[in-house]
Structure formats: structure tokens, C-alpha cells
Specification:
five-stranded parallel sheet, 5 strands
């Protein structure tokens, strides 16, 4: 069986989670890995374990445990629904999944900032997942400032087996159909 690892790339409120959930419905035998869910779980039940500064190592450990189980104990496709804006981090993920026999697909969300700002202003999404910011506006501002600095760059075609770029929400159904066609 050709297993897929679909890796989303994009700023906050760009549609990564909505896309991942829609793809999961169409791509049989797939699992969405969304670190926002892990952050919310940890913030709700294990607040005292969260680091005061630096990386959220417990969130990453929880994610790694779930991913390891999926890779080694199931035949499921993976849909990694995180920002994945750091090129070195993406390459590390892709190398790992390819070494395990997965076909890797990047889905880059290049939704214009004015749309993201509008979505944030209308959002009912809980800020309980946030640890180093108070609002999603703050998250977006940080992401805007980081863009194209250091290793925070858009993916290129040579990074994965396939690359899709979504610039407008109406492109999502086409990308989902294309990905499902790879199975």
C-alpha cells in the first residue's frame, strides 16, 4: 500500500485544520495529527508540566509518541496539520517519512494576510492552545515578521514528492481530489 504523509505549511488561520479534516473524510484510513489538539489537552490537564519558556517539549513528545505509533503499528496515512514553516524542520520530517516508505506531499497555504486578519477577527477559536502569545493577532504578527527570514521560507518543489499551493479557499476541493488520487 502506498502510504501518504501530507504536511501542511501556513500561517495561523490559513485553513490548515479545515483542510486536514476535509481530507481525512475523503482519504480512507488516514489520521490527522494536529499539535493544537495536543496543546489544548496539555493546557487543560497538565498545565503545571508546561515549560515557562522555550520549546513546548512535552507537546512535541506527545506528538512524537502518537506519530511513532501510527508509523510503526498501523497502515494509516498521516495528515500533519501544523504550521511547518521552518524548512529544516520540514526536510527532517520528509526524510523520516520517506525512509519509512511514505510518499510525502506538502500543501502550502499562501492565503493573503488580509484574509487571515479577517478570519482572526471573526474567529471563535479558543486561545487555550496559545502559550507564548495572548491572541491570534499576536501570532499572525509574529509569523508575518518571521516570513522569509532565516529558515522560515515557503516550500519548494524539490523538498517533497509533491507540492500543492493553495492561494484561495476555493482551491481546496481540487487539491483534496488530487491527493486522494495518489492512493
Amino acid at each position: 500500500m502506498n502510504r501518504l504523509a501530507i504536511i501542511t505549511v501556513g500561517k495561523t488561520h490559513s485553513g490548515k485544520t479545515t483542510f486536514a479534516k476535509a481530507l481525512e473524510k475523503e482519504l480512507l484510513n488516514s489520521v490527522v495529527i494536529d499539535q493544537d489538539n495536543h496543546a489544548e489537552f496539555l493546557n487543560t490537564y497538565y498545565q503545571s508540566l508546561l515549560p515557562q519558556q522555550g520549546s513546548n517539549t512535552i507537546k512535541y513528545a506527545l506528538t512524537q509518541t502518537i506519530v511513532h505509533h501510527i508509523v510503526h503499528e498501523t497502515n494509516c496515512h498521516l495528515i500533519l496539520c501544523n504550521s511547518n514553516r521552518n524548512r529544516k524542520g520540514r526536510i527532517r520530517l520528509i526524510d523520516y517519512y520517506q525512509s519509512k516508505g511514505f510518499t510525502c506531499i506538502l500543501v502550502n497555504f499562501e492565503i493573503p494576510d488580509h484574509i487571515l486578519e479577517e478570519r482572526i477577527s471573526e474567529s471563535m477559536r479558543s486561545t487555550s492552545i496559545l502559550r507564548t502569545a495572548i491572541t491570534f493577532d499576536e501570532v499572525l504578527s509574529r509569523q508575518q515578521a518571521e516570513t522569509n527570514t532565516g529558515d522560515i521560507i515557503a516550500p519548494s518543489e524539490d523538498e517533497a514528492d509533491h507540492l500543492f499551493v493553495i492561494k484561495m479557499p476555493n482551491e481546496v476541493p481540487f487539491v483534496i481530489r488530487e491527493i486522494v488520487g495518489f492512493v
